[in-house]
Design goal:
342 residues; mainly alpha; Rhopdopsin 7-helix transmembrane proteins; 77% helix; 0% strand; flat
Length: 342
């Protein structure tokens, strides 16, 4: 059993499940949105099967896992093609779509036959591993579609789709790396395969941001700023603690007789610094500005800010002059410590 593989693909399954539920509840019936939901669902099932496969001691190929992987790639390629078609094919008829899907399904069927043929007791005596080459071909096709989508998207619209390029780009680049290494060394590297689950989990939040920025996909995805801020804080604190733990271990190992003492002092100082950053209003304000600037269509969650503004005006010390209360209500929206009214 591969514990890292089980954990990695298990985390990926949870992340993709959350994304699937989020997209399913916000889908409004358009084709592009339906293809996105389908691709996310297949990726979820693929991650679940990979986690189960990693938990077993069986070294033989798993036909269901390989089938889901091929379907996953086909689903993402179909979604990318649906986004690309209106950009590059202004006068095309529906025959273009029929041709594309026929070629893609035929390619995937041939790859499936090659992948599972050892289970039938048959072996194709070929000079190279056609199955690995087939998976490399799917990864390259995905990267080509992403590149064409980027080139044919207007520069002012790339802000809305850049996270889709990053999310699916990570997925296809890592697949290319996995199978190129397998083609070179004649076997799937277990370390690269185990890390693949966590790498795929990274793609899901990026795709969620892309869906939130593209309502024309018929996806009205709402991501709470408060949830994003708290999640980012927890994630950043976790990375910081891991880095400090590694540095503390290095100090203890190479610090000689003073190693243990220096480690305790270092970790205490690191903990104090983390607490100071977490409770710093200035750091929180800068993080909110950065998040609102790069991850959301609008600078503020207007409903939440309006309710907070009304709450500030209607509460507080009765002896506080109305003009000061108004200044304080406006200042809190922009995270300012003061203001003036004239």
């Amino acid at each position: 059993m591969s514990l890292l593989g089980v954990v990695g693909y298990g985390v990926a399954a949870v992340v993709w499940l959350i994304l699937f539920l989020l997209l399913l509840t916000s889908w409004r019936g358009r084709l592009q949105g339906g293809l996105l939901v389908s691709a996310v669902l297949v990726t979820l099932l693929w991650a679940l099967r990979a986690a189960l496969y990693a938990s077993t001691e069986v070294a033989a190929p798993d036909w269901l896992y390989q089938t889901l992987e091929i379907i996953r790639d086909v689903a993402w390629l179909g979604f990318l093609a649906a986004l690309l078609e209106p950009l590059v094919c202004k006068v095309c008829t529906h025959h273009w779509g029929v041709w594309f899907w026929s070629v893609l399904i035929g390619y995937a069927t041939a790859l499936f036959v090659v992948d599972v043929q050892p289970l039938w007791g048959a072996e194709f005596n070929l000079p190279v591993d056609i199955g690995i080459l087939g998976h490399i071909g799917l990864a390259i096709a995905g990267l080509v579609l992403i590149e064409q989508l980027f080139r044919n998207t207007r520069p002012q619209r790339r802000w809305a789709t850049k996270f889709l390029y990053l999310g699916l780009g990570v997925l296809f680049v890592y697949d290319f790396f996995l199978y190129a290494d397998a083609l070179l060394f004649k076997r799937i590297d277990p370390v690269i395969w185990e890390a693949r689950g966590l790498v795929n989990a990274i793609s899901a939040p990026l795709i969620a941001l892309a869906a939130a920025r593209n309502p024309e996909w018929s996806m009205e995805v709402f991501v709470s700023r408060r949830v994003v801020l708290h999640s980012t804080t927890i994630f950043g604190a976790g990375i910081y603690l891991l880095a400090m733990a590694g540095a503390g271990y290095y100090i203890q190992t190479y610090g000689g007789a003073w190693g243990a003492t220096l480690q305790l002092v270092f970790l205490t100082g690191a903990g104090v610094l983390l607490a100071a950053l977490l409770f710093s209003g200035q750091v929180r304000a800068r993080a909110l500005v950065l998040m609102n600037k790069h991850f959301f269509n609008y600078k503020y969650d207007y409903r939440e800010e309006w309710l907070k503004f009304i709450g500030t005006l209607s509460s507080g010390d009765p002896s506080e002059p109305p003009r000061e209360r108004v200044i304080r209500a406006v200042a809190e929206i922009v995270h300012s410590t003061g203001g003036s009214l004239w």
